Amino acid sequence: MKYPAFFDEVPSISLYDPLAEFLGAAEGGILQYGYLDAVRLAGHSCPTVASAYWASCKALATLYPGATPVRGDIRAEFSQDSTSGVTGVIANVVSMLTGAMSDNGFKGIGGRFDRRKHLFFAVEMPAEMRFTRLDTQQTLQLTVNLKRVPASPKLPALMASCIANNASPAETAEFRQLWQERVRSILLDHRDDPQVFVITHT
What we know:
- The N and C termini lie far apart (42 Å).
- The strands form two sheets. This protein has a five-stranded mixed beta sheet with strand order 4-3-5-6-7, with helices on one face. Strands 1-2 form a two-stranded antiparallel ribbon.
- It has a domain at 14-144 and 194-201: CATH 3.30.1330.
- Helices cover 36% and strands 16% of the residues.
- It is built from six helices and seven strands; from the N terminus they run βαβααβαβββααβ.
- The longest helix is centred in the C-terminal third of the chain and has 21 residues, at 169-189.
- The protein is globular.
- With 202 residues, it is α+β, with helices and mostly antiparallel strands.
- Helix 3 (47-63) packs parallel to helix 4 and helix 5 packs across helix 6 (169-189).
């Protein structure tokens, strides 16, 4: 699988999943995820997938300072409904990293490892997302402001030509390059920008 080289420059995240350890899926229960995993899950790389991946990484690092985050022990909430805008896409990436699921999640084994009722939508809050560490009830809210990472002004016309299937090979290549350049900028240039990834402690 060939993909843009910058994918490998995006920091990965290591998580401890007690279910993975219990079932022998990973030594010590340690799972590692990178941006490419989010791309494989979504089937594409875009600003939404990129911001969902990095917002999750930042939230988990903040909730578990100096420690390995525990997958399956996080509640994730969204202010929008799952069918509103790109909330569903974001939630899929958040769920992959946190293990949080709604009623369709893993039911657990012997009363342990239940992943249900950890993912909620249409929750009243001032931010876009809220992450809660279930063992300590420590909570943070997070909003992503992608307007702070503008796209190339050439993108709308190039995208329109590609959608209409009348773009030249050169225009198609330029569209793809400019599209992924914005993704790269979000993940590498702005990953520590507090005006893009806005975290509020509650």
